Amino acid sequence: MKIHNFNAGPSILPKEVVIKSAQSIINLNKSGLSLLEISHRSLDFLEIIEKTTHLVKYIMNLNDDYAILFLQGGATLQFAMVPYNLMNQEAAYLDTGFWAHNAIKEAKKFGKVNILFSGRKKNYTCISKNYQIPYNVDYFHCTSNNTIVGTQMNKFPKTTVPIVCDMSSDILSRKIDFSQFSLIYASAQKNVSSAGMTIVIVKKDILGRIKREVPTYMDYQIHVQNNSILNTPNVFSIYTSMLTLEWIKNKGGLSILEKENKYKTKLLYDEIDKSNLFENKIDKEDRSKMNVSFFLKKKNLEKEFNKMWKKENIVGLDGHRFVGGYRASIYNALPLESVQFLIEIMKEFEKKFS
Ligand SMILES: Cc1ncc(COP(=O)(O)O)c(C=O)c1O
């Protein structure tokens, strides 16, 4: 049975990644042991973590100025870890979505937060490009893709201030100059792996500048010194991300994925834009190429539409509970065929109800 999986996260992964990670649970590399049974300090696992680190750097074109960490606690822990490690006095944030807002709430516990732009009053349907980053802040924080409403940053500011970016929902989906960032974090459960692991990519020279004491697990420097095995990491999620990174490398890298993602989302946005029944509320230039949100213009048709797509084995199309409507998450692994299928269903619905 073909299922079309539009879940926002945890979400669709490449089929071969799911198959290989399932096999590894039974028998890892013909060792007779399950991936779940090996020591995180064994040679087998050290090889896995080294390979995964290398693949992140290779695919994102990053040099050894950067350390790659595989931590736990989700992106939510990073909302606190970033200011804990980087904020002496003040930082600047863009309030572009619900997750950005949560990051700001955490940062306020550590110092002064300059909010350079807030889209909150406009329900986060746009992202400003006209903001000035104060030269004296410790860092500037932004969210590259706002998963809940479906907006995405297309440009990042030129600044001498370290840029920190939450890339949880669009990491590895497009080719950008990753060396413009001093710190990138992304929880793995969208484009990379299973839940329970967060990739942190940190430029080592921004660490060690703060005055406060940091608890051991919250200290990036300690994780860097311990190559992400200070304590027992999420072995399964790291292994699965290695498989996804290999899949990306074999496909030809991020520029290929970027092209595919642009094409897939353009098809869907075009369909929404020409439809009488559906609408997208995001400023066109800020539309996400990962999460396409849309609404029925007549709310009373929702029941009928829900019945229709659910019957067709489409899953995960409900909008986030904060905003309602619909959201098609079109991550790297979602096949073009699923987008085309959804469009067919929308067309059929239109024929019946417009
Ligand atoms: C952009 C963004 N940041 C942060 C989070 C929170 O991630 P986690 O649940 O891993 O803490 C999410 C989750 O969907 C997200 O989309």
Question: Largest sheet at a glance?
Answer: 7 strands, mixed
How would you sum up the global shape? globular
Q: Which ligands does the model contain, each kind named once?
A: pyridoxal-5'-phosphate
Q: According to CATH, what is the topology of the largest domain?
A: Aspartate Aminotransferase, domain 2
What do you see in this structure?
The structure is a single chain. It is built from nine helices and 14 strands. It is of the alpha/beta class. It has two domains: 15-251, Aspartate Aminotransferase, domain 2 (3-Layer(aba) Sandwich); 253-353, Aspartate Aminotransferase, domain 1 (Alpha-Beta Complex), CATH 3.90.1150.10. A seven-stranded mixed sheet has the order 2-10-9-8-5-3-4, with helices on both faces. The chain has a three-stranded antiparallel sheet with strand order 11-12-14. Helix 4 links the parallel strand 3 (90-95) and strand 4. Helix 1 (15-26) packs antiparallel against helix 6 (235-251) and helix 7 packs parallel to helix 9. It is globular. It binds pyridoxal-5'-phosphate.
